[in-house]
Structure formats: C-alpha cells, structure tokens
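Protocol check, entry for the methods section draft. Step 1: assemble the input record (protein sequence plus ligand SMILES). Step 2: submit for complex structure prediction. Step 3: store the structure tokens unaltered in the notebook. Ligand used here: nicotinamide-adenine-dinucleotide. Step 1 record:
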Amino acid sequence: MTELHLWLRHEVRSTERRTPIVPPDARRLVDSGVTLTVEESPQRIFPIEEYEAAGARVAPAGSWVSAPDDAVVVGLKELPDAPDRLTHRHVFFGHAYKRQPGAAGLLGRFAAGGGALLDLEYLVDEDGRRLAAFGFWAGYLGAALAVLRHRGRLKAPLVPTAKEELDERLRPAAGDEEFTALVIGALGRSGRGARVAFAAAGTEPTCWDLAETRDLDRPALLAHDVMVNAVLATTPVPPFLRDEDLDDPARRLRTLCDVTCDVGSPLNVLPVYDRTTDWTEPARRLREDPPLDLIAIDNLPSLLPKESSTDFSAALLPQLLDFATGAPWARCLDRFHQACRELGIAEGEFRHV
Ligand SMILES: NC(=O)c1ccc[n+]([C@@H]2O[C@H](COP(=O)([O-])OP(=O)(O)OC[C@H]3O[C@@H](n4cnc5c(N)ncnc54)[C@H](O)[C@@H]3O)[C@@H](O)[C@H]2O)c1
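Step 3, stored output:
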C-alpha cells in the first residue's frame, strides 16, 4: 500500500482564513506516517511556521497543480478556475451536487482529468450524519450578530475576531433592554451554537425544532424580538414567515437572522427576502415601521477562523487517519460518480483506485 500524501492547499478567496487542518493535527498526521505538504497562504489564521514545526513540508501557494499524482489535495472552498483538467483527488466543499451554478463545469474538469471530488458535505457516517461541519460556529455567530444589531452595536464591515472578544461584546451593558429570542432548528449544530451565544448575551431563547413547527404558531413566532433560523431543510415545509407576516401590526419581531440562507431554493423557509447580506453590509432593513432588520450571511464561521478551524480539524482528523480504508470516503467517491452521472458528464478513465 502506498503511503498517504496529503497536500493542504492555499484558499483562493481572500477573506477565507480558515483551514481544515490546524497545526497540532498536522503533527498528529505526520507522527502517524502521513506525508503532509502545506502550501504557504498569507491569510490562513495559522502561520506556515507552525506547520513546518509540526513536520510538514512547505510548498508555494497554488503548487498543488504539480503535486505528485497520488497526493490528496485538501482545502475548504472553491478551486481556482485553472487548470481545466483536474487529475488529483480533492477534498473540499464543492457545492456541486445540487445543480448549483458552475456545478457541471467543476465536475467536468474532474472527469476530463481523471481526478475526483471527495466533497466534505457528503462525508457522512452510515446513518447519513455529517462527520465534519462548521454549523455550531455559524449558529453562534448568527445569534451574536443578531444580538449586536438588536442592541444597535453592530459595526460594519465585519472583521474576523476571537470568541473571547465576541463574548465580551455580547455581555449586557447598563441600559440594555431585555429582549426575547427564538431559535428554530434549536436541536441541530447551528441551533446549539445560537443558544450558547444568546446565553452569553444574558437571554434564554425559546427553542423550536421539528415538533414545534409541525403546526406552526406564527403569532407566537412574531411575538419574539429576535429570531434565528438554523434549520436544515430537506423537504419543503410551509414558510415560517411570509410577506404579510412582516406587515402584521402585532409583530414584535425586530431582528431576523437566517443562518440557513436557502434564499432562492424551493426549500427556503424564509421567502421574505431575495438576496443574502455580507460582511460589508451585514444587516438590511426589510420593514420600516416598525423596523425589521435581516442578517443573512452565508460564510459566518469565517468570522471566527481559529475556533471554527480547530473544531473542524478535530472532527476531520480521525477520518484523514483512516483515509485508505474508511467507508465514509468510499461513500464520498460513490456520491461523486453519481453526481457526474446525474449531470450526464461522461467520465474518462478514473486515475485512482
Ligand atoms: N450561514 C452560514 O455561514 C452557514 C454555515 C454552516 C451551515 N449553515 C447552514 O445552517 C443550516 C443548519 O446546519 P446544521 O449543521 O446546524 O444542521 P443540523 O442538521 O445539525 O441541524 C438542523 C436542525 O434543523 C431541524 N429542522 C429541520 N427542518 C426543520 C423544520 N421544518 N422545523 C424545525 N426544525 C427543523 C433539524 O431537526 C435539526 O435539529 C444548514 O442549512 C447549513 O447549510 C450556514
């Protein structure tokens, strides 16, 4: 059996400071006999020296294109547009299996080169549960930003921070009014994170999950001051909010944070807005009188790059250590071939067995 060679790549998106492998876990990989190459990456939250000290080899940013054929390239987000033919196995979030824009193009590049996408979103156990995810920190940040906005203390543009700093900013100050909060999807990863942030802000939120939304009580929803939506919708359900609810004169709701961000999808439970917000414009006013502000940022965990990378890496490490024989990777590969078939992409010779 050939030795595993992992190649941690630089992220092309300039605001992406996270990494799927943090330096202490890099050391664990190296100590277990994995060859680890780490690309230099100026914005990565951990300096390259820490990887070097952990025993990793260092390579220039973007040099994975000429990595040995058997190297498994590991990243988080999108690849650069070149090269046209992808010959390696790549581990990252491809966002390409739900007919997203660009999906066919990306899968076509893999098919042309004989490489494969091992999509982290589809790295699941035998019951289909995700093995490595960023949800907790998405929910924590979503609720934190909602609280800051509600208290009139959300500064733009947003910049990456540390949890202690954010907790400090969440602590109620003299003169802060009490508020009621609702988390929907409260039993999930993001929901748990949202509850932790609300606790740091001194409030105990109402928690709803599947059981509480089956027979949705919209007046009860609208009676909260702040709401965080953190559901993972898999089948269409009646929307939690409609335009007419925002115009309801009895509405207390002032701040809405949609962590789920399914805007435009048939599964969207909040069809009351048509575009996400971002780090430059984190909140947008949906109604004036009384006011209602929306926060719908689709890369929340990047705002806490250290904490979110550390947790993600801890979850990914056992899977990487089991790369050669792990059933989750076999499922990932099957899912890749299935996605190619669904899109009618003819695969040439698959180079890796
Ligand atoms: N905005 C971001 O930056 C960001 C980052 C990571 C994840 N997300 C998104 O956040 C969402 C949640 O992710 P997660 O990891 O917490 O998922 P999860 O599977 O851990 O939790 C989802 C929860 O939603 C509940 N749920 C599903 N349908 C529901 C309904 N109709 N009513 C009430 N509850 C319902 C489930 O029972 C579960 O408890 C996903 O859509 C994910 O893509 C967003």
